[in-house]
Structure formats: structure tokens, C-alpha cells
Automatic annotation (TrEMBL):
Keyword tRNA-binding among record annotations: no
Protein name in UniProt: Cation diffusion facilitator family transporter
Parts of the chain that traverse the membrane: 12-32, 38-57, 77-94, 114-135, 179-197
Cited NCBIfam families: CDF
Topology with respect to the bilayer: Multi-pass membrane protein
Domain Cation efflux protein transmembrane intervals: 13-202
Start and end residues of each Cation efflux protein cytoplasmic domain: 214-275
């Protein structure tokens, strides 16, 4: 985690230095040419620098160790920081739009010279390179704030290209598009702000774990001797690089408590070593090994479930012949219009098919792939 945050700081410092230089030169070019589009570009670069500073602060705060009040650490601070980045971008976009509209209503003459056009041209290349670099590093480090900064940098390159094009139109035909280009720039900035905000909201609410990670965790568990299947896997994101979870596994009903304990500890150890996921709990499902009746009823329940296309899985099946109780779990996908109605119908048909048994069924959450 420390190495990751050190890398984030390095990328953020590069962004800050580059954007401050661009602010100085683009503001100079904007004042020399009296171009609102170039001046707005400079203001946008200033917002980029502020975003990078906030990213730095967030990376530092996220390093705080877990404590009694926050036992899972402070990693989610990075997601909160992304809200601030989005706010800065939106503020810059809205203010830029006001300036652009004022220029459209009250046009002013612009005077483009070689120096101002050269500065804009250099800024296009610089922001495209900086944006590509920042996005790649942000994705590699799992830092959404950096990815957001990189996306905004690419928008800046597009914005500067539009500014350069409008200057060409003005020099060639005397038609001033400065205010209109400024409005387009502002719209792009506002869109970027909303995109960053939407991503931050989704992360804060809690997203479905990446399929590659959840499948890798299941593979690791299923390769352990004595485990017949891994189910009910839930993964909780407490910030980049801080993922906790829990899972159920099926084992033989003849297995001793000591053997279950050994398997549980091995599962937690291997998943952490291979996928860097801390499993907080490993639950146990008992599987019938000496009951032909259990196999018959399980097949019957599976036939019932086959009628419903949105049921993804049947697991945790166990028949207690002494109490005549049947337990099982079903996973019904969120694409089912009424998951609870489907679940109740499955239970009704099961009870009707096997009236001498009591059913203890559970509707599981379709949390991971």
C-alpha cells in the first residue's frame, strides 16, 4: 500500500508541475490575444492542478492505520476525494460557461499572434501525453482520482485543439468563434465532472466485485482438498487494495470439527496470499455422503428450479433424515422481475412434491460472478 501511494504521489506531482506551467503560459497567451477560449483553458488547467493536490492529500490520509472507530482502515477516503475532484471540475465548467456566454452576447476582437498560437499548439501535445500517462498509471494503481485527472487532461487537449481551429478560422476569414468555442469547452468540462462524479458515487455505494477476482478466489478455494464447492462469496471494497470478504464451502457431513477448522484456516491463508483478499469468515455447508434419499430429493429440487431461467445456482443442500428437514439455498439473478415471488414458488412446489418434509430454504444474494 505504501508503494502504491508513493507512486500516486509521484504521478500527482508531475501533473501539478505540468499544469502550473500550462496555466502560466496559456494565461499569458490568452491575455496577449484577448481570447476567452485560451483564458478558460488556463483556468481549466488550474482546476487540474487543484485536483492533483487533492489527490495527494487523499493518498496521504488513506495511509492511516485502522483504529477502533474505523476497523477496516481509511482507504475509502480516496473515493471521497474523487467527489472533491468532480466538484472542482464542475465548478470550473460552470464558471467557464458563464464567461463564454458573456463573450457570445458581447463579442470582443481577438488578436492572435505566433507566440500565443505556439503556446496553444504545445499545450495540445503536452496535455494528450500527460492525460494518457496519468490514465494508464491510475488504472494500474487502482486510483480513480488519477484516472479522472487523466480524462480531464485529454479533454483539455481536445479543447485546445478546438481553440486552435477557431483561431485559424478567425485568421482566415475574420469570423470570431471564440465565445462559441468557449461554450463547447465548458460543456466538455461539465460532462467530465459529471462522469467523475458518477464513478465516485458508484464506488461509494459499493459495486459488484470484478468477475476475474471473484472467479480467482473461487478457483483457489475449490482446489483445496475436502472442499466440494465455494458459494455465497461476498467481497467488500474498503478502498483500493483493501478487500475483505466471506464465503461458504461444502464439505462431507462425516468431517470432524478439527478438520473443518484446518480447512477454514487454509482457505483464508491461501486466498490472502494469492488474491490479497482477507476472508473474515468461512462458513460450512454439510453435504450428505450416506443417503440415497438425499440424492433423490436434490435431483427433484433441481428439476423444479430448472423451470425458472433466472435461477443461477442450487447449493447448500442437506437432508436431515432424523428431523425430516431439507435445507438448501438458491441464487436468483437480479434480472428476475420478482425474485421473492420466484423463490416462494420454488418453495411451494418443493413442499408439494415432498409433503412429508419440512423445508428450510434461503434466497441468496447474487453478489459475485
Amino acid at each position: 500500500m505504501k508503494a502504491r501511494n508513493r507512486s500516486i504521489r509521484q504521478v500527482a506531482l508531475i501533473n501539478i508541475a505540468a499544469n502550473i506551467l500550462l496555466v502560466v503560459f496559456k494565461m499569458l497567451a490568452g491575455l496577449l490575444s484577448n481570447s476567452v477560449a485560451i483564458i478558460l483553458g488556463a483556468i481549466n488547467n488550474l482546476s487540474d492542478a487543484l485536483s492533483s493536490i487533492i489527490t495527494l492529500i487523499g493518498a496521504k490520509l488513506s495511509e492511516r492505520k485502522p483504529d477502533r472507530k474505523h476497523p477496516f482502515g481509511y482507504g475509502r477516503i480516496e473515493y471521497l476525494v474523487t467527489f472533491l475532484v468532480a466538484g472542482i471540475v464542475l465548478y470550473a465548467g460552470i464558471n467557464s460557461m458563464q464567461e463564454a456566454i458573456a463573450r457570445i452576447i458581447t463579442p470582443e476582437s481577438t488578436t492572435y499572434d505566433f507566440t500565443s498560437l505556439l503556446i496553444v499548439s504545445v499545450s495540445i501535445v503536452a496535455k494528450m501525453v500527460l492525460g494518457t500517462f496519468t490514465i494508464k498509471r491510475g488504472k494500474r494503481l487502482g486510483a480513480d482520482a488519477l484516472v479522472g485527472s487523466g480524462i480531464e487532461s485529454r479533454y483539455d487537449a481536445v479543447v485546445s485543439a478546438a481553440t486552435l481551429a477557431s483561431a485559424g478560422v478567425y485568421l482566415a476569414g475574420g469570423i470570431s468563434l471564440d465565445g462559441w468555442v468557449g461554450a463547447i469547452i465548458s460543456l466538455l468540462i461539465i460532462k467530465a465532472g459529471f462522469d467523475i462524479l458518477r464513478e465516485a458515487v458508484s464506488k461509494t455505494l459499493g459495486e459488484r466485485a470484478e468477475a476475474q477476482l471473484s472467479q480467482a478466489v473461487r478457483t483457489t478455494i475449490n482446489q483445496i482438498d475436502g472442499v466440494h464447492g465455494a458459494y455465497d462469496l461476498a467481497l467488500y471494497d474498503h478502498g483500493p487494495g483493501a478487500i475483505d470478504g466471506c464465503v461458504h464451502v461444502e464439505v462431507d457431513d462425516t468431517m470432524t470439527a478439527a478438520h473443518m477448522d484446518a480447512i477454514s484456516r487454509r482457505i483464508r491463508k491461501e486466498v490472502y496470499e494469492k488474491q490479497h483478499v482477507h476472508l473474515l469468515a468461512v462458513g460450512i455447508y454439510s453435504t450428505n455422503t450416506q443417503s440415497s434419499k438425499a440424492s433423490e430429493i436434490r435431483t427433484g429440487i433441481a428439476d423444479i428450479i430448472a423451470q425458472f431461467p433466472h435461477v443461477h445456482d442450487l447449493h447448500g443442500f442437506y437432508l436431515n433424515e432424523e428431523t425430516e428437514t431439507v435445507s438448501f439455498d438458491v441464487v436468483i439473478g437480479f434480472d428476475d422481475k420478482d425474485r421473492y415471488a420466484t423463490f416462494n414458488e420454488i418453495c411451494r412446489q418443493a413442499a408439494q412434491k415432498y409433503p412429508h418434509y419440512e423445508f428450510n430454504a434461503t434466497l441468496d444474494v447474487d453478489a459475485t460472478d
